[in-house]
Structures are given as structure tokens and as C-alpha cells.
Design a protein that fits this description.
By secondary structure, the chain is an alpha/beta fold. It is built from eleven helices and 18 strands. Strand 10 and strand 11 (191-199) form a beta hairpin. The longest helix is centred in the middle third of the chain and has 25 residues, at 206-230. It is elongated.
Length: 376
């Protein structure tokens, strides 16, 4: 059964019993030194590395905290977008501009001697890294007193890599969270600092879950840094034997195959929202929101969809070939047979059209029972 009531995140600190590394020694020296100056509570100077919307909440939260001073921003270069290929700044840069912060945008930070020199001159206490998008060199990692602290969108060592939120949804996980980590030269292999947990709702997609995790990450990075200031945190080495990896998302991951199970298709669609597609009457049909049908899911449906449970006996008698429209549910959408189970489509987007509710699609296209939604 899926956990639909999204309880408050649980935070906890772990004590490290792992092998001491150079990063740990640097961290320990800084922490010991900080303990001797706790009475003064000096402002912690921060350089923030981040690029997408996921990083914005952490930056905004740090800017509001009186014990911190964000002294510079490092983000990816502006990228051309739209038909006119106009250069658009990253979401993090837009916030930095609003606060008139210094902004550095190296295309390859590891080889950019000018940016590295600027970072050295900041004499920052810590670099905070949230979805920056480039790998930092050992030279950069060693610069700040407390090291580089990363906000990662999973419970490490699970889902190291580029797309932890998407692959957690794809795999049908019922729980995820945020980990703050002391970065090292590996890919998300550094020692862990704090973790926060949250259940995943059955109907949550990557955008919605990412928004929640972004907010959680913002609170967790503040808690992490405050504990650093107080000398009340110890790194915990990751158990690499338990590690899993979140690979880069490829275009082929968006292709829907109706011979898959309803639950697998539902997870694929919400994980890679809004990009998963099938084919209808020779045109690309993006599938944006779905519900797998069956007794195991009824308790997780919102009140407006409880009518589906009331029709469970009728629905269980339906059958068809994978991809076949086997039922139309008034004012809600239409049901497609899969390789295992039934999938209700709630929101779709036909090529050249705007996203629309599946019920509107039914009426506009005069969808008929027995029609086939082809694989993508």
C-alpha cells in the first residue's frame, strides 16, 4: 500500500565509524577550530554552487539565515532557448541577480584558472553545492575550511548520480529523501552528514516530488551548517556495497510499451514527466498523468476518484489487448489495457496541442472503445 499522507520529514545525525580520509581530516580540523570560537558565533561565509530550480530553495533559505553570508554564486553558463535561441540565465542566477551577488559561470570549472583564483580569494568557510552540473576538482574541494557540502536528492548510498528523483519514482519506491554529504572526488561517494526521509505519494510525479525535496533540502542544509558551526556533526562513510546508481536519462526512456504492467507504466510516466509518449492515430501522444487500477491502490486515491473503487467489480470484468481502450470513465478519462492490469489515463497531450484532461481528449477526439493506443 502506498503512503499517501505525506508526513513530516525525519532528520537524524549519524556518527562516523569509517575510514579517515583527507576530506575527513580537513573537516575535523575545521570543526575543532570552530568549537573554540563558538562563543563568538562568527558568520559563516558561503560560496553557493547550483543551477536548476531544485537548487533555488536552498539558496533562498541560506540568504535568509542571519548566521550565514552568501558571498558568491557559481552556476552554469546561460543557455539558448526557444525559437530565437535567446540566452536564458539559470534559475539560480536569476536569484543571484535579484540579490546583487557576484556570479561566476565557467564552462569548465576544473580548467578555469580565473574562477579557481577567485574562489581562493573568497576565503570561504564552506562551498555549498546543489545540482551544480559540473564535477569539482580535488583542488577546489580542498579550498574551503569546512570542505564542500552537497545536497543530494536521495538517501545515500542509494541512487548516486545524475537523476535520483526520477529513478526512485521509476522503480516504484515508497520512500525517498535528502542527504547532505561531504564531497570527495568520487560521484556522490563522500561521507554523509545528515539525512531527511519522506514517503512518496502514488500519484506524485518527478516535478512535484522534486519541489518537495528541494524544500526539504533547503532546511537540511541549514541544519547541517549550523551543526558544523557548533561542532556537533560527524561524517559517516558510505557503505559502497549498498550503493545503487541513477544513470543519465536517455530519450529511449520516454517510450511507452503497453505490454509492460500498469504499475511499471505509471511509474515510468511520473518519473519522466512530462516526456513519456505513445502514438494515437499516427500522431505522438504524450501521457502526462495516470492511475493504476486495482484493489491495492484504492486506499491511496483522492476523494474525487473514489468513484473508481465503487466501479471495481465492473472494471475487473474488462479485458483487451495491450494498448486497447477498454473503458471510458465519465468526467475522468479512459482506461487502457496493459500487459498486466489496467491503466487510467487522466491527462494527455497530442502533438501540436496543449496538455488537456483525458476526459476533454475523449470528447474532442471522439475516442471510441476498442481503439488502440500504439507504443511510442
Amino acid at each position: 500500500m502506498y503512503l499517501m499522507s505525506l508526513r513530516n520529514a525525519i532528520y537524524f545525525t549519524q556518527v562516523c565509524h569509517g575510514t579517515t580520509t583527507n576530506n575527513h581530516r580537513q573537516f575535523a580540523r575545521a570543526t575543532n577550530k570552530q568549537q573554540t570560537t563558538n562563543n563568538k558565533q562568527q558568520t559563516m561565509k558561503i560560496v553557493f554552487f547550483g543551477t536548476p530550480q531544485f537548487a533555488v530553495a536552498s539558496l533562498q533559505r541560506l540568504l535568509k539565515e542571519p548566521k550565514f553570508e552568501v558571498i558568491a554564486i557559481v552556476t552554469q553558463p546561460d543557455k539558448p532557448r526557444g525559437r530565437g535561441k535567446k540566452l536564458i540565465p539559470s534559475p539560480v542566477k536569476q536569484v543571484a541577480l535579484e540579490h546583487q551577488l557576484p556570479i561566476w559561470q565557467p564552462s569548465k570549472i576544473k580548467k578555469d584558472s580565473t574562477t579557481i583564483q577567485k574562489l581562493k580569494q573568497t576565503a570561504a568557510d564552506v562551498f555549498v553545492v546543489v545540482a551544480y552540473g559540473q564535477i569539482l576538482s580535488a583542488e577546489i574541494l580542498a579550498l574551503p575550511k569546512f570542505g564542500c557540502i552537497n545536497v543530494h536528492g536521495s538517501i545515500l548510498p542509494q541512487y548516486r548520480g545524475a537523476a535520483p528523483i526520477q529513478w526512485s519514482l521509476y522503480n516504484g519506491d515508497q520512500e525517498t529523501g535528502i542527504t547532505t554529504m561531504l564531497m570527495d572526488k568520487g560521484m556522490d561517494t563522500g561521507a554523509m552528514l545528515l539525512k531527511a526521509f519522506t514517503p512518496i505519494g502514488l500519484l506524485e510525479n518527478a516535478l512535484e516530488l522534486g519541489t518537495r525535496l528541494s524544500t526539504m533540502g533547503a532546511e537540511l542544509i541549514v541544519e547541517t551548517l549550523l551543526k558544523l558551526q557548533e561542532g556537533k556533526i560527524e561524517p559517516v562513510a558510505q557503505d559502497s556495497s549498498q550503493a545503487t546508481y541513477a544513470k543519465l536519462i536517455e530519450k529511449s526512456d520516454y517510450t511507452l510499451d503497453w505490454t509492460s504492467s500498469a504499475f511499471a507504466l505509471h511509474n515510468q510516466i511520473r518519473a519522466f514527466h512530462p516526456n513519456c509518449s505513445a502514438s494515437f492515430r499516427g500522431k505522438t501522444l504524450k501521457v502526462l498523468a495516470t492511475i493504476p487500477l486495482g484493489e491495492v491502490y484504492w486506499s491511496d486515491l483522492p476523494p474525487e476518484l473514489k468513484i473508481l473503487e465503487q466501479q471495481s467489480d465492473k472494471l475487473s470484468a474488462l479485458s483487451g489487448s495491450p494498448g486497447e481502450v477498454i473503458s471510458i470513465v465519465k468526467k475522468i478519462g479512459f482506461i487502457v489495457q496493459t500487459g498486466d492490469g489496467m491503466l487510467l489515463l487522466r491527462e494527455v497531450q497530442l502533438a501540436g496541442k496543449r496538455p488537456q484532461l483525458a476526459w476533454d481528449f475523449v470528447n474532442g477526439m471522439r475516442l471510441e472503445l476498442g481503439e488502440i493506443i500504439e507504443n511510442g
